[in-house]
């Protein structure tokens, strides 16, 4: 990769500002899911083992304009301490005299966690003065928060104007390497699997991928807008009327480029999301008073056949209302098909990760991205502010 990495930094005796994404769900005053905390542990261990003093920073949740005790990083500090088997003190704030003094007192091989960056509105405003205060806490900068790299925030973008060098952490390296492998030099056939509720969430992604992939598999609620664009009546299934023309254009673009665009041929339908069960019908037989909530068995077969031929797979979004057990079958089946393919696979998005875990195949996925929005924006070909801000490798 073309960016400077933490492994290239002379860390011994340096105070390193590490921007991580520790935005973990909390429950009962503790961390309910420590996936994102575990993801940054290798970077922290590397810095500490090489004699750096680490000043660690993250956001948590969406505080409304100021400090919120419910969104303190205290539970995160406690869990990080358990994972690292060493104390992780929490600073009272992320800027200010007390915090600066505490950061300056951190010794080599020790770590200090700053309080929630978003307790200051200046963080999300990418405020230069706030960024300058953060930069004063360290000698160099490491960004290991790929999941937040699509945000031009003070601790992600503006800080790099005052704190150099700015290097990628180990997790950031892994994310960029895996996603770069998909977009820059994929082994073909390259197949993208897209699901989720809305076309509007993934318009740019669909348009970008049609020019990159050999096959595009579309399921989930967004598939019904494409099916409506083809003239199918889809009952009460989710359709975005203002995106029908967009879907029609994508279908035409795929046809012109010779890209296979696979859509459901049957669906599991029911009266509503709370129905205890559903039944599979052909796409042309969806009753007017029912809605499609999952892909059907024939679609599972067809999608599996497409994936079996792939050498590279990228997947984001469930095939149905995955959180409801009667309508999770299609998503789990696709997870198993992705895992079973003789392909390098990359997945991203909370529901997609949950599906892979539910199917028990997470160990058979090439790379599981910790990111949601950044994952999608990278695949769309956008420049991520947090990546662009990093120092170029020599």
Question: Can you characterise this structure?
Answer:
- With 394 residues, the protein is an alpha/beta fold.
- It has 2 domains: 6-173, Phosphoglycerate kinase, N-terminal domain (Rossmann fold); 186-379, Rossmann fold (3-Layer(aba) Sandwich).
- The protein is built from 13 helices and 16 strands.
- It has helices at 35-49, 74-84, 97-104, 128-135, 170-183, 203-210, 222-229, 244-257, 297-308, 329-340, 350-358, 373-379, 385-388, and strands at 15-19, 26-27, 30-31, 53-57, 111-113, 140-143, 166-168, 190-194, 215-218, 260-262, 266-270, 279-282, 291-295, 312-316, 344-347, 367-368.
- The strands form 4 sheets. It has a 6-stranded parallel sheet, sandwiched between helices. A 5-stranded parallel sheet has the order 5-4-1-6-7, with helices on both faces.
- Helix 9 (297-308) packs parallel to helix 10.
- It is elongated, with a radius of gyration of 23 Å.
- The mean pLDDT is 95.
Structural features:
elongated; 394 residues; Rossmann fold; alpha/beta; 16 strands; 2 domains; 15% strand
Summarize this structure briefly.
The chain has 13 helices and 16 strands.
Numbering strands along the chain, what is their spatial order in the largest sheet?
10-9-8-14-15-16
> Which class of the largest domain in CATH terms?
Alpha Beta
Mean pLDDT: 95
What percent of residues are in strands? 15-25%
Q: Quick one: overall form?
A: elongated
Broad structural category: alpha/beta
Continuous helix count: 13
Distance between the termini: 11 Å
* Tally of separate domains: 2
**Quaternary structure:** single chain
Q: Unreliable runs, pLDDT <50, ≥5 residues?
A: none
N-to-C order of helices and strands: EEEHEHHEHEEHEHEHHEEEEHEHEHEHH
CATH superfamily of the largest domain: Phosphoglycerate kinase, N-terminal domain
The CATH architecture name of the largest domain reads 3-Layer(aba) Sandwich
Could you name the CATH topology of the largest domain? Answer: Rossmann fold
Q: Describe the biggest sheet?
A: 6 strands, parallel
The amount of helix comes to: 25-40%
Rg: 23 Å
How many strands? 16
